[in-house]
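User: Hello, can you help with two protein structures?

Assistant: Certainly.
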Amino acid sequence: MESASNEWISELLLGMRLSGLDYRRFQMAPPFGIRFDIQSSCAQFHFIAQGPVFLNTPDAGVLRLESGDAVLLPRGGHHQLLSSQDVKCRDINGIETIPLCEAFSCVTDCPDGTCRSRDVRIFSGRMTFDLGGMHPLISLMPRVMHVGTLLARYPEVLPMLEAMERESRLERVGAAGILARLADVVAACIVRGWVECGCGDVGGWLAALRDPRLGAVIAAVHREPGRDWSVASMAAEMGSSRSVFAQRFREALGISPLNYVTQLRMRLASQWITEKDMSIDQVAWQLGYGSQAAFSRAFKRATGKTPGSLRHPA
């Protein structure tokens, strides 16, 4: 059971793509309130270099964040960062920023006459978050993922948080790039910790992965997406009849085995074309299609788009 669990965790982390779109460094004197409304296709990361700060989300309530805390909102969405729970908020897009370098800007709101020791310093990043073939996992993640829950089990995260605090405070040359890379790594560690700790109390897709026999089939499909998969070959991996396998698969995941394989292939194809700049011929071959034409028809049928449109978006 442990071996199967480690296998699909490795598959998940291998396919994870988490990279920053834009970053902001805030230094603000209380009282303040910042409202974020991040599209659901993006994740939002916040690191509190000097707090405290209150994070308010519609469905997760209010969370007090202290200096050194970090949170990841894997599905973005509407949320607020507040110096206290009763202050009014300004939309992040309406706050003046000072560009420091590409995709990195600074927000400073510290009126004269206020004590600098009370300033709050926050480092935030808006990130693309893609798990490739494991993409269904994102919808099962908690609304807010807090690094504080990981430190006892993963002490190696603490030096990264301390490095982020130093870079944010000292403003050394190259701090923007170092902060961005550290944020990417810490966010990935938060996801890994949640996965390794059992992914909380969720069922469905994860329940299938935790089933040693059914999980082994899913891991095999992710490992070899271009194999000529059939219900019979997947049932053989599980060691059961086709009818028993197909029924258990649909009950656990809500779709048929072959539909699952097709969805996985199309997600991987999109990732390989847009991120790895693979040719359509290469993608077709890697995913087990006999020709570019056969792959293009399958892609259009599944997504409503042609593979070529990914290279030349309208």
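That covers the first. Now for the second protein you mentioned:
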Amino acid sequence: MIFDFFGSKKKAVIAMAHIGALPGSPLYNVERGMDGLIEDVSKDIEKLQAGGVDAIMFGNENDRPYVFKGTPESISAMTAVVMAVKPMLKVPFGVNYLWDPMSSIAIGSITGASFVREIFTGVFASDMGIWEPDCASASRLRANLGRTNMKMLFNINAEFAHSLDQRPIELRAKSAVFSSLADAVLVSGPITGQPANQSDLRKVCETVTDVPVFANTGVNIDNVADVMSVASGCVIGTHFKVDGNTWNHVDADRVKRFMDKVNGLR
């Protein structure tokens, strides 16, 4: 069993529901406003659920350039979008406010999410500058909000960044579980939509045996068999989009073909 909310599934697929750029970010569409954000993500959710994904994770990937600390307007907007579409959800859901652990915990706690994903540990040189997440504060916020049942998924090798920690990735993963109480470990590629190194994924899976390990980026119909042979599951966004473009809407046929293959593997 991975987590209780996945039932008896031994391998799980978490699909991304990318929310459009939120208020305050440069790409926010003022003319379409909040109604446009809700309309677009609702259509994507319908296609993801029809295709049979196991869970959905809301993310603000369109809020480029990314920030390390969420703004009041974007945090409230993301919370409002999630709450607006929550009644249509038939599967467990999670949230990830890029790249702010505290905002992710806050939004997840208030909306009733089953899990959150973020960079909770490590130090990185990134496109956004030096990246120093504060896992202790995020974990304490989760406890203070009474949501210790909400799982924290630790992305241990950040996209758009290079780790300044010289320890092997498998040791960083094991340490995150021991010292920072990771509920799951996620292994990523260098950029959204690009796969994690299969050797790194395998090493982490072989080293971390007491919590689930997921491939976090770049999973597609061609490599999912290799991924699922070692990992507990995957997070997938780009491959489900029209033409495999991260910024497009979800393609229902891509979702169905992928999930048909996954169901044949598990």
